[in-house]
Amino acid sequence: MSSQSFADLGVSRAVTSALSERGRTEPFAIQKLVIADVLAGRDVLAQSPTGSGKTLAFGVPMMDRVESDGPRPAALVLAPTRELVSQIVEELRPIAHARALKIASVYGGVGLVKQAKEAARAQIIVATPGRLEDLLDRRSFALNNVSVLVLDEADRMLDMGFKPAVDRIVAQCPKQRQTLFFSATLEGEAGRVSRAYTRDAVSHSHAPDQKRLEAIEHRFHALEREEKLGALVRELRSTERDLALVFVRTKRGADRLVKRLGREGVDAVAMHGDKSQSQREKALARFEAGRVSTLVATDVAARGIDVSGISHVINFDPPEDQDAYTHRIGRTARAGRTGVGITFFGSEDGIDVEKIAAKLKLHREFAESGFVTPRGGGSGNGSRPKQRSGGGPRNGGGSRPRFERDGGPRGGGGGSRKNRSRNGSSNGGGSSRNGSSSKRNGSTNGGGRTSGAVVASAGGGRRRRGR
Fold it and tell me: Would you list the domain boundaries of the chain?
């Protein structure tokens, strides 16, 4: 039985030829689900994970829906980050060229005037909400001729607080338009917003490819805060890796970890929202070219990174939920390759990470970490992971994990997190170890064990999502 082609889905000869020149002859699963509906002019709600091919799922049929001699801009794609905007434009430009269409990127960190001129001449604009509003306020162009509106990674835009800006932008588009809503989840707020922006939409759901998950070796390591750097250095010094992408929770944590790695003789670069666009592009270019083999990034900054040579994704700070894990780990094992996904976690994160693993059917892999859920399903309060026979976590040395039990992250008064409970004080007081006795700020539970396990993030201080 022959495989389905883009032409079979109704894509024009010009676009299929452009795809073929780039080696794209057989559509991915999400593309097979979506393209025909988009070509038919229907609104679409698509739930699909990172790395599934959703850019071409909306981009390929969009090229056939837009006319080169019509009013401009005719299509608008909203995305949460500069990197994702750049990735979308780079992937779609050859296809747009085949249809004599101009595509322009709009994002912060570069000159307004040149960007505004290019966007005003383009049939297709790919933009972050903030910079797009800047240009709209300057009356550089209007959105009253937009016939196709795409919201890519809509759930992340909501997480980043862009909903008010997106609402204002959508209100400036014609009501009689086609709306394509792509998101890792269609539940909760994302689901409500998707229904508000679309009319009689066709829904498609593409779950994470189990074969792709199986192509990744998932490892979970229960570690104390002071053990994490050593474990990371050992992983990065491995000769059995290519490029490594390391995730941390905060922007400050990314910069701090790069400096700490440098002192250990490991060359790395950081990418986060406080970097200028030029700095981010240079860091990504050095990483992609292999001139530096380790990139340390926050979740938001890593959106849009599509580098084929990433063999290892390491969660130095654990992800917040299943979607974040999928987005992170999805940066490896691309284009038929295999990869390794490693997650470090402390006792306070154990239950949350275990839930993530369970949802992704990674029970066995998580069990190898040796973490034992406290009786009664508590929040990891005062628990201590048991180790497999033969010592500590893989490549993590043979020491038994111990955990900080007082005061929270360095800098005092560490922020709270859902599912965290503390019985001890959280005033950031210090602790000392003298043989078998320990001075603590928290209370103790029989046997000298102090409750309220807390592990700081790489950047210290209150947990927050890096931008």
Answer: 7-205, 210-403
pLDDT of residue 50: 66
Fold of 210-403: Rossmann fold (3.40.50)
Q: Which residues of 98-118 are buried (b: 16+ CB within 10 A; e: fewer)?
A: bbebbbbbbbeeeeeeebbee
Find out whether 66 and 96 touch, Cβ atoms under 8 Å: no
Q: Quick check: helix, strand or coil at residue 92?
A: helix
Find the helix packing angle between 54-65 and 29-39, rounded to 10°.
Answer: 20
Asked if 115 and 191 touch (Cβ cutoff 8 Å), the reply is no
Answer whether 7-205 and 210-403 agree in fold: yes
Lookup: tokens for 97: 């060229």
Q: How confident is the model at residue 282 (pLDDT cuts 50, 70, 90)?
A: confident
Q: How much is the pLDDT for 90? A: 93
Would you say 257 and 247 are in contact if contact means Cβ atoms under 8 Å apart? no
Are residues 353 and 231 in contact, defined by beta-carbon separation less than 8 angstroms? no
CATH code of the domain occupying 7-205: 3.40.50.300
Contact in structure between 147 and 179 (CB atoms under 8 Å):
no
Nearest to 343 by CA among 238, 221, 433: 221
pTM above 0.70, yes or no: no
Q: For position 310, what pLDDT does the model report?
A: 92
Task: Report the run of H or E that residue 136 belongs to, with start and end.
Answer: helix 129-137
Residue 179 dihedral angles phi and psi, to the nearest 5°: -120, 130
- In terms of Cβ atoms closer than 10 Å to its own Cβ (0-12, 13-18, 19+), residue 217 is middle
Angle made by CA atoms 32, 24, 291, in degrees to the nearest 5: 120
Q: Among residues 155, 164, 156, which one has the least CA distance to residue 192?
A: 155
